[in-house]
């Protein structure tokens, strides 16, 4: 089937132009100022974009759909519901995690994750691979992983208690192997030893209400971890990528590493740009609980400036959703399930509060939400562009549409959004995945299993 989108403003990271775009099958086959009738295939569906923006499909490069956490918790959103929610927000590709378990290989984790996603995801997807332990033939497995299409690893510098953290004495070896294989190491950067020292101060406390999360994991622990891992990568002359940068002090560490010659890159999320730690004092504080914790207004503003000055390369969501019932199982910050939904609200929030407030223009927004993640995680130009011959993933975005974000308007299985009450101007109205309309005017037309696994090429950061 062919689709012709007329009267739209095509926006890429490089240009904005009034163009018509012709899709056939799964690809973009032509872009012109205007198509003559004889150039349009028979039975072509014609969409009048009516002056709206045509954007490359958004890439949420950090999600946790169908994530299992000890002892027996599973996120509210599985691959199907999570990807449906994402599609309503203009997301056509997500990058999730295959998580190694202690005593098991990374290949086993990757194969299991492929099986869990297969036949369930409604949009396209790829994976990062988390590494929690090294073993004698792991370098061969890392090479096999790269051949299988995974080009990025996840290193935790915290979460020792649940087995996610790689032993500190193994960090350098993992970095060396990753450099040799040109695998990008992404880092959850919080200094676990500092956190343990802080906890000692509160050893006599019996109750740790949600707000104590900010005291146990202050910005200093992010600064310390970024400096340590960043300096290590700099010595090895390799790129390093910081996940969910949350604070002004973390940003300062990033700048210090970069200005001293380090190849350091970072992402942040809407919640660290727009929400503050005051929410953790509310009666329903658990709904705003994630790790790293929320910071203050000064941190929000520092991260917006970091985006403006192009120190941050990607905005994604760290979507890790639980129902309110799951979140309210504990009021102790050491036991609350960490994570919030976010994929669906990513694009409208970044447009409204980033472009709308003048921190960057719409072309730079496309870079942050689509082109940069596609390049960094080896999916470009098939994803993240609007080039002829590439995948026909695109979003028709109405920059004038105003809505107030609400729990009832969301499609996540979590049943709520931490951004309820936020007013946005600019909203996706049509999402197209490889030439097929999967969302239009707030109705879902996609299918379970309609997404496919994407084999990532080598990261552009190498």
Q: What can be said about this structure in brief?
A:
This protein has 13 helices and 19 strands. With 462 residues, the protein is of the alpha/beta class. The strands form three sheets. Strands 1, 2, 3, 4, 5, 16, 17, 18 and 19 form a nine-stranded mixed β-sheet that branches.
What does this 3D model show about the protein?
- This protein is of the alpha/beta class and 462 residues long.
- The chain contains 13 helices and 19 strands.
- The strands form 3 sheets. Strands 1, 2, 3, 4, 5, 16, 17, 18 and 19 form a 9-stranded mixed sheet that branches.
- Strand 9 (91-99), helix 2 and strand 10 form a beta-alpha-beta unit.
- The chain is globular and about 75 Å long.
- The mean pLDDT is 97.
């Amino acid at each position: 089937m062919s689709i012709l989108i007329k009267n739209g403003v095509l926006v890429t990271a490089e240009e904005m132009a009034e163009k018509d775009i012709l899709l056939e099958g799964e690809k973009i086959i032509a872009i012109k100022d205007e198509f003559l009738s004889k150039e349009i295939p028979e039975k072509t569906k014609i969409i009048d974009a009516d002056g709206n923006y045509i954007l490359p499909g958004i890439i949420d490069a950090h999600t946790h759909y169908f994530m299992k956490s000890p002892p027996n918790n599973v996120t509210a959103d599985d691959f199907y519901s999570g990807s449906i929610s994402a599609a309503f927000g203009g997301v056509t590709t997500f990058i999730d995690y295959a998580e190694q378990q202690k005593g098991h290989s990374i290949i086993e984790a990757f194969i299991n994750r492929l099986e869990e996603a297969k036949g369930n995801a409604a949009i396209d997807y790829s994976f990062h691979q988390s590494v929690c332990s090294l073993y004698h033939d792991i370098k061969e497995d890392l090479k096999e992983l790269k051949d299988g299409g995974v080009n990025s690893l996840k290193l935790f510098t915290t979460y020792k208690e649940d087995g996610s953290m790689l032993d500190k004495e193994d960090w350098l070896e993992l970095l060396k192997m990753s450099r040799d294989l040109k695998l990008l190491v992404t880092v959850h950067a919080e200094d676990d030893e500092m956190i343990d020292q802080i906890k000692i101060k509160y050893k006599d406390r019996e109750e740790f209400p949600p707000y104590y999360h900010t005291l146990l994991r202050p910005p200093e622990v992010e600064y310390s971890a970024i400096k340590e891992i960043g300096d290590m990568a700099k010595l090895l002359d390799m790129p390093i990528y910081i996940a969910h940068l949350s604070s002004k002090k973390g940003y300062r560490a990033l700048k210090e590493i970069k200005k001293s010659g380090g190849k350091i890159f970072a992402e942040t999320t809407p919640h660290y740009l727009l929400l503050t730690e005051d929410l953790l004092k509310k009666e329903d504080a658990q709904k705003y609980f994630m790790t790293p914790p929320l910071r203050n207004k000064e941190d929000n503003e520092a991260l917006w400036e970091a985006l403006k000055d192009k120190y941050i390369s990607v905005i994604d969501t760290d979507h890790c959703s639980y129902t309110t019932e799951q979140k309210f199982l504990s009021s102790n910050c050491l036991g609350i399930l960490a994570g919030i939904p976010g994929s669906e609200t990513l694009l409208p929030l970044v447009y409204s509060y980033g472009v709308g407030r003048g921190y960057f223009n719409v072309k730079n927004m496309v870079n942050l939400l689509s082109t940069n993640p596609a390049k960094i995680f080896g999916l470009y130009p098939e994803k993240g562009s609007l080039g002829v011959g590439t995948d026909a993933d695109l979003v028709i975005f109405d920059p004038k549409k105003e809505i107030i974000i609400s729990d009832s308007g969301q499609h996540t299985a979590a049943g709520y959004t931490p951004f309820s009450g936020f007013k946005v101007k600019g909203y996706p109205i049509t999402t197209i995945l490889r030439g097929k309309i999967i969302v239009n005017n707030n109705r879902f037309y996609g299918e379970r299993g309609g997404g496919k696994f994407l084999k990532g090429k080598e990261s552009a950061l190498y």
